[in-house]
Specification:
- The chain is mainly beta and about 375 residues long.
- It has two helices and 25 strands.
- The strands form six sheets. It has a five-stranded antiparallel sheet with strand order 1-2-25-24-23. Strands 3-4-5-6 form a four-stranded antiparallel sheet, with no helix packed on it.
- A hairpin with a 4-residue loop joins strand 3 and strand 4.
- The longest helix is centred in the N-terminal third of the chain and has 17 residues.
- The radius of gyration is 21 Å and the shape is globular.
């Protein structure tokens, strides 16, 4: 038996390592956490501490050194968890080191209907304090779909928030509502003076762009000063868009998708004057989720590429861009996870953290 002990010990560690670390092509994938419920948003508050929102209305602090998961209290009681709605994104403020502000988005219960809402709070131990709803969007309906809810910051003191069409297609072209829009706000939730529709009648001044179906990925690249979004199409027609100030992205007038109930095109076609074309279209749909543009050096083959989570097709979609900003190549990575990829973020050292609807979080680096 003593002779077998080293062999058994080696086998034990081998099985443990295989359970937690795997390789896919030139990538090493390490599982950091499990047991979460649809981890929607992630943000670091220190090198080893990660805050994770869960759509069912929970916030969890994960110590990546020890693996310990701690529930965070202090969330509001009016998070409306239904259908696709609940607690959405979380991001640290650009001035987090000085102010401690965390920005969160959620589906707020307003008179029995849900409205995508931007809030901020601070973390004190394992409790949120100073919770403030900065902006309750005019998007409330009784529908339980297409909330948007992604948050991103520029380098000039603004925060962007995406709002889906809430299942009311035509409202995405109605500038009297926030439905189907990307909003731009000051960090305190007020309207910047240079927003494109400030001072115009019958237009809500928070709107930065409109004509969106359901943008669930939003990323501002401080190096290029460009804002990117990725949104769900209907049956086919997911889009990656480069967001421009005041522009109309066409939904539901133009689309590359088809109706769910019949093999018919949506809208009037794929092009119309005054409406923007996407940088990339997915037909069939991959069911896009989050989006970043990789800026690090640890995964040199992906530098400058767009990384898009795929829910239905269960992979990380890697898009190469030409010098003129056109999508010219596509790679499907992390298929070995066999999971709906809900969120992807980049760490300070250039690794990726990837969350799946199965409740797992992975760290992705170059394989040694």
């Amino acid at each position: 038996m003593l002779r077998l002990f080293p062999v058994l010990l080696l086998l034990f560690f081998s099985l443990t390592a295989n359970a937690e670390i795997q390789q896919e092509n030139d990538l090493e994938i390490e599982k950091l956490a499990r047991g979460l419920t649809i981890p929607w948003g992630m943000t670091f508050i220190s090198k080893s501490q990660l805050l994770v929102t869960q759509r069912e209305g929970k916030l969890t602090l994960i110590n990546l050194t020890t693996g310990k998961q701690s529930p965070i209290s202090g969330l509001p009681n009016d998070i409306r968890v239904e259908g696709q709605g609940g607690l959405f994104d979380i991001q640290t403020s650009p001035d987090f080191a000085d102010t401690g502000w965390l920005y969160l988005s959620y589906n707020k219960d307003v008179d029995g209907q849900g409205a995508t809402t931007l809030s901020r709070a601070r973390l004190n131990g394992q409790k949120l304090v100073d919770w403030t709803d900065l902006f309750v969007s005019q998007s409330r309906t009784s529908n339980q779909v297409h909330y948007g809810g992604r948050i991103s910051f520029d380098t000039k003191g603004h925060v962007f928030l995406s709002i889906g069409d809430r299942g009311e297609r035509g409202s995405a072209q109605n500038l009297k509502t926030h439905i189907g829009s990307i909003l731009r706000l000051q960090l305190d939730g007020t309207v910047p003076d240079d927003n494109p529709f400030v001072g115009k009648t019958d237009v809500l001044p928070e709107i930065w762009s409109y004509g969106h179906r359901n943008p669930q990925g939003l990323f501002y690249n401080p190096d290029t000063q460009q804002l990117w979004s990725v949104e769900h199409g209907p049956r086919g027609g997911d889009e990656i868009n480069l967001i421009k100030r005041g522009h109309n992205y066409g939904w539901p007038v133009i689309s590359y998708g088809k109706e769910y109930w019949a093999p018919l095109d949506v809208g009037e076609g794929t092009h119309k004057e005054g409406m923007e074309q996407p940088v990339k279209v997915y037909v069939p749909s991959i069911a896009t989720s989050s989006l970043i543009q990789y800026r690090g050096t640890s995964l040199p083959g992906w530098q400058g590429k767009l990384l898009v989570g795929a829910l239905k097709q269960q992979h990380l979609n890697v898009i190469s861009l030409s010098s003129t900003g056109e999508a010219n190549d596509e790679e499907k990575a992390l298929r070995s996870l066999n999971g709906r990829i809900r969120n992807v973020i980049e760490t300070a050292d250039g690794a990726l953290l990837v969350a799946t609807d199965s409740g797992d979080i992975y760290r992705v680096t170059s394989a040694p």
